Amino acid sequence: MPIDLYQIAGSAPCRAVRLAAAAVGVDLNLKETSILDGDHLKPEFVKINPQHTIPTMDDNGFYLWESRAIMTYLVNKYGKDDSLYPKDPKKRAVVDQRLYFDLGTLYSSFADTYYTWIFTGNAPDQAKYDKINAAFSFLDKFLEGENYAAGKTLTLADLALVVTVSNFEIMNYDFSKYTNVQKWFARIQAEAVKYNEIEDNEIKAFKGFVDKFMKKK
Question: Residue 95's closest CA among 83, 80, 78, 108?
């Protein structure tokens, strides 16, 4: 049976999960969930995820949320090999570090800057952009002399990070001076399984979401 993924169209974490699923050849049954309509607060949803966050996965009665946890689960259970998430402790630790970097630094800087702007109408101050610049500087350093974010092959770290970077691109953040990031970004877009198929429509959905709220300001 396909795995159910409760998702929001355009959501970066949901897109990352979909890329991970595509990479291991897992079919997802996408269940669109509207936060604006309160779908995530309905009793039947809270029953499977008390935190009522999106994305949430239902793998035949096994419920899991937090996108990076879902991504690692999919590879651990369904991956044909361990290239996306190595079993070697040191190699896996580097992938984990990059996933945590995405969660706590890069994606966090995006959310703090742009979601605040989208929902409140308060334009970002320089301090917020400084955090973004610092995050990109770190990522650029990680990629120095490397084709991938965590090792010599494409991993889950690349799939999580590429979606976050694409969000910055949507918001017209100029990262052209980070040449390592630019080269890596183009490489992962070309190599990630079903990248264009998944991202093209989802990016349009995210742009529509941004435009809808920014026009209200």
Answer: 83
